[in-house]
């Protein structure tokens, strides 16, 4: 074997053949390097910042006005200060209403409280017989102890005697007058006569309003005597009766001849029933400021009285 290696040119290859002690390389093609992309050119330098533009003109002032509201709201304010309120309500317009405890009011601009509703309910539920004695008539701000069409009797008074008749108003009412009617016998030589109103706690009657003493009361037979409440002695000129509450109306006369008053005869089989509805007490010189019920006697006369 010879020591010569012969390399024959071939693209991208070398053929080696055995030669003696030498390597011959001839015409070997070499792949050239890949071409390099050209470099982009450098950007130009930014220009200077432009000057600030001029301020625009001020806009026109908006028109002023009062805030518009819908009923029942009203606004009596200005464009800079509102003054809101709510209109009063009525049967024809929505609005604000005042609450009232009255069960007799005819107002169309107030609203009943739950207390007023309950009072009306209680009266209806008990048939208006809260104290076993029904007040007779209740109309036009008037309450009466007995119905006018039942008045048949004329009973004599006794001098130095106070009489008390129970009644229960069916609605709240503010009174300023008390009326009694003289019977068929006129009084004579009267030195004191007056009417009064009492509250009751079940054991004691307490005088809460009275008229001034008037010596002409009952001096003429079959005559209506109406007297106003008087403030003498610290009593009020008006008094509010509360529906469903038991009261006693009273009169007292000190006279030589005490005369008579009209009313309804209370039969013996009924006048002693408890609670009694008519009482009297003897040996008084005036209406007592306070009177224990236990110290009263039952009366057979339900005297007619009117409070208005």
Helix-strand layout with pairing:
Layout: E1 4-10, E2 13-19, E3 22-25, E4 73-75, E5 84-86, E6 98-100, E7 110-112, H1 114-125, E8 138-139, E9 142-144, E10 153-156, E11 161-167, E12 173-175, E13 177-181, E14 188-200, E15 204-210, E16 224-228, E17 239-241, E18 247-257, E19 260-265, H2 268-271, E20 278-281, E21 290-292, E22 297-298, E23 301-303, E24 305-307
Parallel strand pairs: 1-3, 6-7
Antiparallel strand pairs: 1-2, 4-5, 8-9, 9-24, 10-19, 11-18, 11-20, 12-17, 13-16, 13-24, 14-15, 14-18, 15-21, 19-23, 20-22
Quick rundown:
This protein has helices at 114-125, 268-271; strands at 4-10, 13-19, 22-25, 73-75, 84-86, 98-100, 110-112, 138-139, 142-144, 153-156, 161-167, 173-175, 177-181, 188-200, 204-210, 224-228, 239-241, 247-257, 260-265, 278-281, 290-292, 297-298, 301-303, 305-307. By secondary structure, it is mainly β. The strands form 7 sheets. The protein has a 7-stranded antiparallel β-sheet with strand order 21-15-14-18-11-20-22, with no helix packed on it.
From the structure above, extract its key features.
single chain, 308 residues, Jelly Rolls, 7-stranded antiparallel beta sheet, 24 strands
């Amino acid at each position: 074997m010879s020591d010569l290696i012969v390399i024959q040119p071939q693209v991208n290859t070398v053929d080696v053949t055995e030669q003696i002690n030498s390597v011959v390389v001839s015409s070997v093609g070499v792949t050239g390097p890949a071409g390099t992309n050209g470099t982009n050119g450098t950007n130009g330098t930014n220009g200077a910042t432009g000057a600030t533009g001029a301020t625009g003109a001020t806009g026109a002032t908006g028109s002023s006005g009062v805030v518009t509201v819908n009923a029942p709201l009203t606004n009596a304010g200005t464009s800079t200060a509102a003054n809101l309120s709510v209109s009063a309500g009525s049967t024809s317009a929505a609005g604000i209403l005042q609450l009232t405890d009255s069960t007799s009011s005819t107002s169309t601009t107030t609203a009943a409280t739950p207390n007023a509703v309950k009072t009306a309910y209680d009266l209806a539920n008990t048939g208006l017989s809260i104290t076993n004695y029904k007040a007779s008539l209740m109309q036009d701000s008037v309450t009466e102890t007995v119905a006018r069409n039942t008045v048949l009797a004329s009973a004599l008074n006794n001098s130095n005697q106070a009489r008390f008749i129970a009644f229960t108003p069916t609605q709240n009412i503010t009174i300023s007058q008390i009326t009694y009617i003289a019977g068929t016998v006129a009084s004579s030589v009267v030195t004191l006569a007056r009417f009064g109103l009492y509250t009751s706690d079940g054991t004691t009657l307490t005088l809460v309003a009275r008229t001034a003493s008037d010596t002409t009361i009952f001096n003429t037979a079959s005559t209506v005597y109406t007297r106003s409440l008087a403030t003498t002695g610290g009593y009020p000129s008006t008094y509010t009766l509360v529906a469903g509450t038991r009261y006693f109306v009273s009169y007292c006369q000190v006279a030589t001849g005490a005369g008579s008053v009209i009313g309804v005869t209370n039969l013996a089989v009924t006048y002693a029933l408890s609670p009694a509805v008519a009482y009297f007490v003897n040996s008084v010189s005036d209406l007592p400021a306070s009177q224990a019920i236990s110290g009263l006697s039952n009366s057979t006369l339900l005297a007619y009285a009117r409070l208005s």
